[in-house]
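ARCHIVE CARD
Drawer: 12
Card no.: 0347
Subject: one protein chain, sequence and derived structure
Cross-reference: see card 0346
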Amino acid sequence: MKIPIMVLTGFLGSGKTTILRNLLHSTQLNRTAVIINEFGEIGLDHDLVEASNEDYIQLTTGCICCKIRSDLLVTLYDLVLRRTKDDIVPFDQVIIETSGLADPIPIIQAILTDDKILSDFKLQSVVTTFDALSGIDTLHSYEQPARQIACADHIIITKNDLLDEEPPDMLASITSINPRAVIHRATLGIMAPTDLFKGSYANATGAEYFLEWLMTDDGSSVNHHVHRHDDEITSFSLVRESPLHAITLSLFLEALVSNYGEHLLRIKGLINIKEEPGKPAVVQGMQHVLYPITWLENWPSEDHTTRMVIIGKHISRNMSINLLELIEEEVTDEISRISSDADRGRILR
């Protein structure tokens, strides 16, 4: 069984370290390997630390912490090797804590595109912390917070307990970037970790959550609204009742990547393919990377419509719809022409 990974990200001062430290006290996260930038940054309590060496700290809860070495992937390789050799305590899951200024997209891409990593691990979820005190200001001043929010399955709002009243535009600012993320609120940096490993990056193994991520707030699967953020990041849904040809999907995804590249922060979808009517195609990607299309054995609900959610910068919903329709029309015409030519050939013979 592959080892699930959670990426924990959040801007400087958003309480990410406090959240992580308190999560490590939870018995629900026993046998977790935590990859952090430096041991000193996490501020581990002395009674939490059981033993350590130059690379690893073993915790009384059954977890183990290690610092990122020359490269994140090298660190993951080393964890698996040491686990196999019984050089470290066994672990069942991994948390990767990014630095506050990190763009999490390259980290996610590195995990999802490395065959060696994917043979042992699976990216399960991305969790982002958001500071209720200063988060709105940093969101308008820096690009990293918006990218951290766009990637998230879960967003933990921190420092609410320090406010008399929640900023009225805070939730709207968050959902304008990523309306699909599950919102949590931490009190004094403490929250239950129950669902944080439940995420939409897990493809077929997370079909139920994947479907929830595509749903709108009222439970319907059809959402024509465009959520816009101040720096022109938009989040919108593409919904199509009739099935698509498989080649249409490939050409559409290639066109998005070719035209928008680094501005494509996230795309996810369940696609009804004409050639495979009973098995929806699962689409995921970000920036220049499109993950291999996977297939669910069955539709997870009675709704068999094609649904895609796109989060990006300078990406228009109308343009995306027109592009998809244009490609499907051309593909359909070409398939009809080929079929007609084949029919004429059979008549002549």
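Annotation on reverse: Residues 215-336 form a domain with the Hypothetical Protein Yjia; Chain: A;domain 2 fold (CATH 3.30.1220.10). Residues 312 and 318 are 14 Å apart (CA to CA).
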